[in-house]
Amino acid sequence: MSNQSAALSQVHIMPQTGGGVRALRAQRVRVTCLQGKQVGDLFAFVPGSRDEYLSPGYTLRSLGRLYPEVGKPLYSAHRRPLLMIEEDTVGVHDLLMPACDNNLYEQMGAKNHPSCRDNLNATLQDFEVDIEGNPDPVNLFQNTPVVNLDGRWEIRESVAKPGDYIQFKALEDLLVIVAACSMDLSDLNGGACTDLMLEVFE
After folding, report:
1. Pseudo-torsion of CA 71, 136, 103, 188, nearest 10°?
2. Containing H/E element for 102?
3. pLDDT digits (tens, 9 = 90+) for 48-95
4. Phi then psi for 139, rounded to 5 degrees?
5. Is the distance from CB of 88 to CB of 166 less than 8 angstroms?
6. Degrees (nearest 5) of the Cα angle 175, 164, 47?
7. Domain ranges, ordered by start, for the chain
8. What are 6-35's pLDDT values in tens digits?
9. How far apart are CA 29 and CA 49, in angstroms?
10. Could you give the 3-state DSSP secondary structure of residue 168?
11. Contact 46/53 with Cβ under 8 angstroms?
């Protein structure tokens, strides 16, 4: 782990909940998998804009690859770089899957189940932020690889270990939100949901 001064802000995200921090341009944002195997749905929003936010689709298009990597940015829906990946102790993340929501859980036979979409919306309300559209996340620590040339993908257990993290440099002033993925009906989070830490550093 790189040397860091004390965090400017810190949010302990409990299982199946979400939380957010404000980060200024050039500050560092770190997401830590405290107990291992927990996926974090990452969202980022540009203050003052209702429609510029982190876009995994435009990130995929801009990078020309399916998976994010150190030294490359994540892009907004306006095709602008928002977050530069500086450090990554896991190296396995996902740009393809949407956030889990009520419809998914109802299809799986679990009504009134916590979801990343609901946790995102609740956190946006906490920050009194109103947006247009339905942003998808960059799924940190998520292990859902494409396993065949015909495009088939698989849900696999996250390979993140306790204390693993990914750190970004903010390229704009941002509201960064992370939802500790609520999926406990598959192997995605190792079969049980745990907590994450979201921090901002100079």
Report:
1. 0
2. helix 102-107
3. 999 999 999 999 999 999 999 999 999 999 999 999 999 999 999 999
4. -90, 95
5. yes
6. 5
7. 9-201
8. 999 999 999 999 999 999 999 999 999 999
9. 20
10. strand
11. yes
